[in-house]
Amino acid sequence: MSAEDRFSMSAEKYLAKHNILIYFEDSIAQLLEHREENPKLNSIKFLSEYFNALRDGNHTMFREYSFVHVTSHNRASFVRLFWKCYRQIGKKGDLLSVNEYHSLLTLLCPDFPFEIVQKTARIILLDDAMDCLISFSDFIYAFQIQFYYEEFIEKVHDQYQSLIQTQRSPRDPVVVPSGTDDTSIHQNSHHPADGVDAMQYFRAVFPLCDRSNYSTPPANSLKEILFNVPRVSFYGFLMAMAKSESINDHIGRLPPKSELLEGADSELTSVAV
């Protein structure tokens, strides 16, 4: 946000945009809880450490899902935390099941919903392959998209369902964008009609971008995905989002896929609250 935009906002809009009241309320609640256990707790030091951790994105470990999920900063920070804690799995080349990934997530957030892990797996595997094993790199980028853009994905799914009712044709080829130049065109044997006109889909999705009440990917990133293919499936669209370097840069928490298992924590981009 530019200085001009910041100072043109009312105090109420600024507080709402950056979720300041959420963090003030949470910091006080955490302070009172810890002071019950330790009456000699230094309140100023505690609050200083709380907001330093919040600034650095180190504040979501072992927190309840309602807190982890409540802001885009928390969601992005949690994705980064998951990467920091478990990237050794990727380095070893281990493949894990949906249940195993969920178990890892619950070690960081005890009540993390299984449904979000299922939705992440569908981006990678589709419904009829949910028992397959998934690599760490495939999982984490798909998880980032599903978790960070959850509300946006729900809305673009509704748009997709509306379009497919009028464009369904069993003989049409479906283009699954890969996020690279070598986009493949194939007949989807599992869902032969699962595709819509890509340009019409972009026109339906574009008004959903740049909303203030939920996170959305940059419109230019969606253009990169949808402007170069004739038709697209819904999960193909989500997979292309997961592979998009520009969307990953926009979220700003994970390194590029080529550096996922190599980069040091200090190389990650900080996201301000």
From TrEMBL:
Main location, first listed in the record: cytoplasm
Family, similarity comment: Belongs to the CSTPP1 family.
Protein name: Centriolar satellite-associated tubulin polyglutamylase complex regulator 1
Physiological role: Regulator of the tubulin polyglutamylase complex (TPGC) that controls cytoskeletal organization, nuclear shape, and cilium disassembly by balancing microtubule and actin assembly. Regulates the assembly and stability of the TPGC and thereby modulates polyglutamylation of the microtubule, which antagonizes MAP4 binding.
Stretches for region Disordered: 168-188
A Gene Ontology term for the protein's cellular component: centriolar satellite
This protein's UniProt keywords: Cytoplasm, Cytoskeleton, Microtubule, Phosphoprotein
Record carries keyword Flavoprotein: no
Cell compartments where the protein resides: Cytoplasm, Cytoskeleton, Microtubule organizing center, Centrosome, Centriolar satellite
